[in-house]
Amino acid sequence: MTHEIAVIPGDGIGQEVTPAAVEVLEALEIDFEFREADAGDRVKEVTGEALPEETYELAASADATLFGAAGETAADVILPLRDAVDSFVNIRPAKAYPGIDAVRPETDLVFLRENTEGVYAGHEDRLSEDVATLTRVVTQSASRDLGEFACEYVEDGDHDGFTIAHKANVMRETDGVFRDTIQSVADEHGVETDEVLMDAFATKVCLDPEQFDVVVCPNLAGDVLSDLAAGLVGGLGLLPSANVGPERGLFEPVHGTAPDIAGEGIANPAATIISAAMLLEYLGHDEEAERVQNAVETTLENGPRTADLGGDASTEDVTAAIIDTL
Ligand code: GGG
């Protein structure tokens, strides 16, 4: 069976790390058909559109999508692409790998981030020169989908339960719906939960990350808190993500375009290659997913390493080492 994979490198280092992940996938004995498409700042400059219709349609029809990064046009690219694959959850593991000089080497977390609403729902207005507004949308239905996913994730994996991170003491209606709906789904499943205010979580996770395992968050909180966790494990070059929907998935590193190093060939491809491992698992290739994950971990431990991890290797050197280790 051939898997059709949409490949959307986007901008900045997305142009470097996405082909690296494709090279790793090509090294496996799996029948892939890769179809590349444009999105982001560069294509907008040329065509006036950050997300051409054919790119959206490709993501909406491919078996899975591998995406790199978007910069200034992130809202016009990433959010519609997540919609194209009907993704309601963004899975973001934050793990400290052996051999990496991490601030908190004991960190091993997974964020399950709501992926369709909150303040990223796109309802922003400029009412006057002085006043800008943003409508935060939280629904029981999206919170229920996330809650169901979180329960299944915990039941299928080696997890005791999950933590709900929210700010319902201030955003009583919106985060109240989020917290109460997810809690009631967990009760129906008999899954254990605890809850934490998201600002307190930011401190607690820095001081003692081991007290957390699976963390279920609203959209913006999941984006911010997973970047914070990246700081604990060695940087954004190490955090993958999977945007999962009922029939399709979009796999992308957590990091953005890194304009400060874009074009130099020194970006760390690990986050995108681990995202490709998540894509493999999503498509049912568990054994190959584990091989890729192990090859990345071995390479992170033994080198070569890119500059963000204290080395001087290029993106190509690291990718070649991962493929050799497979
Ligand atoms: N590879 C993902 C990317 O381009 N991240 C930049 C960004 O702005 N992300 C926002 C989000 O993940 O919602």
TrEMBL record:
PANTHER family, alphabetized: DECARBOXYLATING DEHYDROGENASES-ISOCITRATE, ISOPROPYLMALATE, TARTRATE (PTHR11835), ISOCITRATE DEHYDROGENASE [NAD] SUBUNIT ALPHA, MITOCHONDRIAL (PTHR11835:SF34)
SUPFAM superfamilies reported in the protein's UniProt record: Isocitrate/Isopropylmalate dehydrogenase-like
Protein name in the entry: 3-isopropylmalate dehydrogenase
Keyword Oxidoreductase among UniProt keywords: yes
GO molecular function terms attached to this record: isocitrate dehydrogenase (NAD+) activity
Domain called Isopropylmalate dehydrogenase-like: residue spans: 4-322
InterPro entries, per database record: IsoPropMal-DH-like_dom (IPR024084)
Phylogenetic placement of the source organism: Archaea, Methanobacteriati, Methanobacteriota, Stenosarchaea group, Halobacteria
Entry similarity comment: Belongs to the isocitrate and isopropylmalate dehydrogenases family.
Superkingdom of origin: Archaea
Pfam families: Iso_dh
Annotated source species: Halostagnicola kamekurae
